[in-house]
Amino acid sequence: MHSGKEPRNMNCAVDDKLYFRKGSRSTSQRVVQASERERLFKEFHDSPSGGHGGLNVTFRKISQRYYWRGLMSYLKIKVKQCQVCQNRELWPHMKVTSKEQKQAKRKTSLKRTAGGKPNSPLTSHVLDTARGSPAANLRIEVYHLMAGQWKKISEGQTNSDGRCPGLLTMEQFIPGIYKILFDTGSYFKANNIKGFYPFVEIVFEIEDVNQHYHVPLLLSPFSYSTYRGS
């Protein structure tokens, strides 16, 4: 619903008490009230489908359907304030001095082993339940859902104990939706096993970056299971 005042200096049409901006585009843009802008930003930027796509992606998505004066300036401020986007270095030319980012860097420097190597916040362990042994030399890939698309951010291989401890660094560890792909087909072939699953994908969400996430896989040729470990 609109406030009863027609927007100034715009070529607008009114349809069912909503203002639509008319221009050269084939589709019109709905003129957005100030009270709606925060909701739209969360929908097109913060949500899993938005994927924290940064300034240009968010602007393109919103401007396809909506309009308000100063949209780009509004998005610049909101994206700059987004801790997730800052961690992804989507603003490499801007000086970021937020308290939250300084704290995140401090946590990264503290989470280290005695040998000086950082502890991985995401680990996995694959057990071959049919053979009763760890699944060694099984290839693993990690993907992050960004702007509605899966982007591979890490890969590795299980050791002789079936573990893959260093899947992500602390710098990569940000809230979002992730996927681990296990190349089970190659593992079965290398061990002369006829398996049913050429690969296994486990999708999960990271909310609290201060926690450790362990995603194990219990695997056999015709079944598999997983659970949230720690």
From TrEMBL:
Matching entries from NCBIfam families are given as: hdxy_isourate
Q: Which family does it belong to?
A: Belongs to the transthyretin family. 5-hydroxyisourate hydrolase subfamily.
What does this protein do, in the record's words? Catalyzes the hydrolysis of 5-hydroxyisourate (HIU) to 2-oxo-4-hydroxy-4-carboxy-5-ureidoimidazoline (OHCU).
**Origin, by domain of life?**
Eukaryota
Species per Swiss-Prot/TrEMBL record: Strongylocentrotus purpuratus
Q: Which PROSITE patterns match?
A: TRANSTHYRETIN_1, TRANSTHYRETIN_2
Q: Which GO terms describe its biological process?
A: purine nucleobase metabolic process
Q: Which Pfam families match?
A: Integrase_H2C2, Transthyretin
Kind of enzyme, top EC level?
A: hydrolase
A GO-annotated cellular component = peroxisome
Any idea what this protein is called? 5-hydroxyisourate hydrolase
Q: Which CDD domains match?
A: TLP_HIUase
State where substrate binds.
Answer: H125, R163, Y227
Q: Which UniProt keywords apply?
A: Hydrolase, Peroxisome, Purine metabolism
The protein's matches in InterPro entries, at most eight in alphabetical order, are given as: Hydroxyisourate_hydrolase, Integrase_H2C2, Thyroxine_BS, Transthyretin/HIU_hydrolase, Transthyretin/HIU_hydrolase_d, Transthyretin/HIU_hydrolase_sf, Transthyretin_CS
One of the entry's Gene Ontology molecular-function terms is:
hydroxyisourate hydrolase activity
Subunit (UniProt): Homotetramer.
Chain ranges of the Transthyretin/hydroxyisourate hydrolase domain: 117-229
EC nos: 3.5.2.17
Q: Where is this region: Disordered?
A: 96-122
Q: So, what pathway does this thing act in?
A: Purine metabolism; urate degradation; (S)-allantoin from urate: step 2/3
**Location in the cell:** Peroxisome
Kindly state which reaction or reactions the protein catalyses: 5-hydroxyisourate + H2O = 5-hydroxy-2-oxo-4-ureido-2,5-dihydro-1H-imidazole-5-carboxylate + H(+)
